[in-house]
């Protein structure tokens, strides 16, 4: 029996008007999906069952505006949460699909960026100074769009670009074309945002962008990139941010493996894999992980606010996901598996206008013109693949056969020096997150309860997971909902980290965190204060607060914590500061005296930790992957507070 004829199948898509999707997820085949389009308002409305309760397969294009479901802000363009309810799936050989698709170049008219290079560089400067420099977060992704006019038939353009991506792009997680009424998306996404299969959730943070030089990448040029502090810290920060999400949806918190290289035609990225177990509905997993920090920033909620301040137009589907929900035959538990790549490296065609959105991750080390160049490189990755600009030919390794086809040349990741550079990155990371971590009911604080007060930084999910690993029954409560009753009932209150200036008298969130800290401190009830809350505690103890000359966003430092050295990750723009050499502080109230020990930098006086009767605090993030000694230090501080 012969299979379907690719030529007739694809000709029908080319000349018809029915919606369809083409997806290439492996080297040999292309999935052809056809069905009906349904637009819904919420992720929970994605129609995974029909009127009779039968499970069905759905491909959903999730726009950035869905962050509203998490209470985050955005420029709302009304982009629909578009679902292709799949009626028929056909799997075709990739080579035959390519041979059947159109290949003549699609002409572009009036092509260029919507924001000029100098204007974008100014945005980078403002974000570093006004956002990162004022404690609003560790990193932010600001986009610009490459735009052009397209006079070709939209379906012809879509299938032409899809063919070109299949032929010329490499390393993509999904290569796809989704064609629906009035909207076309064609891309080669390098990054799986989240997947769930048989109860295993996987996330794939990718960050650090190496733009291949003319002639292609070599081991020497890549090695220089891998030694970059900026690029390394950028990757660690997004891993931290995605671990926050994993800790929210996975019972075992999430384990990291890697790093690996993601080699593409014009760009190479570094990446990790995160895996954990979850029994949540895949739509709930998708909601809790909206959206990837690699295309938004961290902390996520504040990143959305910063994006709205510095991007003047809506994102559409850029930085959203394409989510494929496939029935898995399960009777109990999740009935669908999820596969959801990030919508980046994607060309959108609407009403004759091509739009290729690209963004750069801005951190404290960012060079404005370097970030301008990164957006050019990312746009070129798509435009070169689809033939809109000249394509690069990769350079061969020094030991390669010069006559060997490009496809047969050894991946750079196999170079011994490159492999050693990648492996050395893990020497800096916390072993806790590299190993399986189930909750430990026999931990040192078993039988105790903890309330973790969330100040809008989901590092609290990682903290709560670590607390459970130490035996505590830990529950997270948002700052706006925490009550005196539930705090008083807890053995330990962990007052959490968050963005912003701890001196801000106009912030309801800061005021609420002050109340949490004050109630536990003056009531003599066990308190652990972290980062922002540590600064608030210091302020209540009469210790000065000041902005750092250089923000410590994603910075790893070895500090002395009450006589024991500890390697800890810091994400702070403000610090508590005492006179160098200060080791003690006292607070007198009408009820009692509170003696406080101070652990501070011997030269600057920056305060790293505080402890006193039933209270302890730390400036760093013991839950971060950058905190090699995080669990040991956390256990010490909790033991003191309790």
Automatic annotation (TrEMBL):
The EC number of this protein is: 4.1.3.27
Question: Could you provide one GO biological process annotation from this protein's UniProt record?
Answer: L-tryptophan biosynthetic process
Span of domain Chorismate-utilising enzyme C-terminal? 117-378
Write out the entry's keywords from A to Z: Glutamine amidotransferase, Lyase
Q: Name one Pfam family in it.
A: GATase
Q: Which reaction does it catalyse?
A: chorismate + L-glutamine = anthranilate + pyruvate + L-glutamate + H(+)
Q: Which Gene3D superfamilies match?
A: 3.40.50.880, Anthranilate synthase
Recorded GO molecular functions are:
anthranilate synthase activity
- Residue ranges constituting the Glutamine amidotransferase domain according to the UniProt record: 451-637
SUPFAM superfamilies linked? ADC synthase, Class I glutamine amidotransferase-like
| Top enzyme class | lyase
- Fetch the PANTHER family from UniProt: AMINOBENZOATE/ANTHRANILATE SYNTHASE (PTHR11236), ANTHRANILATE SYNTHASE COMPONENT 1 (PTHR11236:SF49)
- Protein's recorded name: anthranilate synthase
The organism of origin for this protein: Microbacterium testaceum (Aureobacterium testaceum)
Q: What is the lineage of its organism?
A: Bacteria, Bacillati, Actinomycetota, Actinomycetes, Micrococcales
């Amino acid at each position: 029996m012969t299979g379907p004829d690719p030529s007739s199948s694809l000709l029908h898509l080319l000349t018809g008007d029915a919606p369809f999707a083409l997806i290439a997820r492996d080297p040999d085949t292309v999935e052809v999906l056809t069905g009906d389009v349904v637009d819904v308002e919420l992720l929970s409305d994605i129609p995974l069952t029909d009127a009779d309760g039968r499970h069905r397969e759905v491909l959903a294009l999730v726009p950035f505006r869905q962050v509203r479901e998490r209470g985050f802000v955005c420029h709302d363009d009304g982009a629909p949460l578009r679902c292709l309810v799949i009626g028929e799936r056909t799997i075709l050989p990739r080579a035959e699909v390519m041979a059947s698709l159109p290949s003549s170049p699609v002409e572009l008219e009036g092509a260029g960026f919507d924001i000029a290079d100098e204007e974008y560089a100014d945005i980078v400067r403002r974000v570093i100074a006004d956002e990162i420099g004022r404690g609003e977060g560790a990193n932010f992704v600001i986009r610009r769009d490459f735009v052009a006019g397209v006079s070709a038939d939209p379906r012809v353009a879509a299938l032409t670009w899809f063919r070109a991506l299949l032929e010329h792009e490499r390393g993509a997680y999904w290569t796809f074309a989704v064609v629906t009424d009035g909207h076309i998306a064609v891309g080669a996404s390098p990054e799986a945002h989240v997947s769930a299969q048989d109860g295993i959730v996987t996330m794939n943070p990718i960050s650090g962008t190496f733009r291949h030089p003319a002639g292609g990448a070599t081991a020497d040029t890549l090695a220089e990139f891998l030694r970059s502090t900026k690029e390394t810290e950028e990757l660690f920060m997004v891993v931290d941010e995605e671990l926050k999400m994993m800790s929210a949806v996975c019972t075992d918190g999430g384990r990291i493996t890697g790093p690996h290289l993601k080699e593409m035609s014009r760009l190479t990225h570094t990446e990790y894999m995160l895996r954990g177990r979850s029994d949540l509905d895949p739509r709930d997993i998708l909601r809790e992980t909206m959206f990837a920090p690699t295309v938004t920033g961290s902390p996520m909620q504040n990143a959305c606010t910063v994006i709205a301040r510095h991007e003047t137009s809506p994102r559409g589907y850029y930085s959203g996901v394409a989510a494929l929900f496939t029935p898995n035959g399960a009777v109990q538990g999740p009935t669908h598996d999820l596969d959801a790549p990030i919508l980046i490296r994607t060309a959108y065609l609407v009403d004759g206008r091509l739009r290729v959105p690209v963004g750069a991750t801005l951190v404290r080390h960012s060079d404005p013109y370097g970030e301008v160049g990164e957006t050019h490189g990312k746009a070129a990755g798509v435009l070169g693949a689809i033939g809109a600009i000249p394509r690069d030919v990769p350079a061969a390794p020094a030991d390669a056969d010069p006559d060997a086809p490009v496809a047969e040349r050894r991946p750079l990741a196999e170079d011994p020096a490159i492999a050693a550079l990648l492996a050395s990155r893990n020497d800096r990371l916390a072993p806790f997150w590299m190993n399986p971590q189930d909750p430990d009911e026999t931990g040192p604080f078993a039988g105790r309860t903890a309330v973790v007060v969330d100040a809008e930084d989901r590092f609290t999910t990682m903290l709560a997971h670590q607390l459970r690993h130490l035996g505590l029954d830990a529950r997270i409560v948002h700052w706006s909902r925490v009550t005196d009753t539930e705090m008083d009932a807890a053995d330990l209150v962990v007052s959490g980290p968050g963005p912003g200036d701890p001196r801000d008298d106009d912030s309801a969130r800061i005021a609420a965190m002050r109340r949490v800290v004050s109630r536990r401190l003056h009531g003599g009830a066990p308190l652990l204060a972290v980062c922002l809350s540590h600064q608030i505690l210091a302020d209540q103890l009469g210790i000065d607060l000041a902005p750092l000359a250089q923000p410590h966003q994603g910075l790893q430092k070895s500090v002395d914590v009450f006589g024991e050295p500890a390697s800890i990750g810091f994400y702070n723009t403000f610090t508590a500061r005492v006179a160098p050499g200060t080791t003690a502080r006292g607070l007198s109230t009408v009820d009692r005296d509170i003696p406080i020990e101070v652990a501070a930098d011997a030269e600057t006086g920056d305060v790293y930790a505080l402890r006193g009767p039933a209270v302890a605090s730390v400036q760093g993030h013991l839950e971060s992957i950058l905190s090699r000694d995080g669990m040991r230090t956390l256990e010490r501080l909790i033991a003191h507070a309790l």
